[in-house]
Amino acid sequence: MKLGVCIELAEDSAAAAPLCLLDHLTLLIQLESFKCVIVNPTREFQVVARPDSISIFPSTLRKITLGGCGFPWEDMKILAQLPNLEALKLRCYAFQGPEWELDEEDFIRLKFLLLEDMDIVEWRASGQILQRLEHLVVRHCYNLQEIPYGIDYITTLQGLEVVDCRPSVVDSALRIKEMQEDLSNDDLQVLIESTWNEKTTKN
Asked: Which of 22, 47, 136, 199 is the least buried, fewest Cβ under 10 Å from its Cβ?
């Protein structure tokens, strides 16, 4: 079962009570894919009410796409507990704030992660993270300083894409590629596109 929600805000939208879009998801016991996108999001007020616990999400969820929700990064800990989540796509301030801390026990089955148009600065990780990750995509995260070193050692990694991020993030991608080669993962596909230095690199 799939569920998609799209809300378009007027440019002059005024603050109102957050929409409780997530409250009844738990009733959809066969839900595997959930998408919630806020068009023309504002950072001035919360449009969608924050999730308060893991219990509001069906354990059957395998794919989540969020855009414009503006959740604080600490709420990511709730999604990180979903036992069957394999794909997570975050676009346009789905989460906001300068720091995201990722731990070993987070996202134990995640295979695909997309970060696009996020204001994150520090992406921190401790221990062996995302051990089943196959594809990592980072696009237009202009403030991000680097991809955490824990990504370097993921032996399941098949694809890495970095588009229009800081040169230090590009350096992170090249560092990951080098480490993966040292781990005999010669099949890793790396795509780097950057207008910071007006050139495109493809491996």
From this structure: 199
pTM value is 0.91
Q: Determine how many CB atoms are found less than 10 A away from the CB of residue 47.
A: 21
Q: Residue 47's closest CA among 36, 55, 56? A: 36
Q: What are the φ/ψ torsions at residue 191 (nearest 5 degrees)?
A: -120, 125
Residue with tokens 């694809």: 159
Q: Residue 90: beta bridge partners? A: 66, 115
- Pairwise CA distance, residues 142 & 164, whole Å: 7
Q: Domain 2-202 belongs to what architecture?
A: Alpha-Beta Horseshoe (3.80)
Q: Which candidate, 84, 80, 18, 35, places its Cα nearest to that of 53?
A: 80
Residue 15: pLDDT band with limits 50, 70, 90? low
Condensed to tens digits (0 to 9), the pLDDT of residues 45-91 reads: 677 888 878 788 999 999 999 998 889 999 999 999 999 999 999 99
Residue of 135, 75, 134, 127 lying closest to 100 (CA atoms): 75
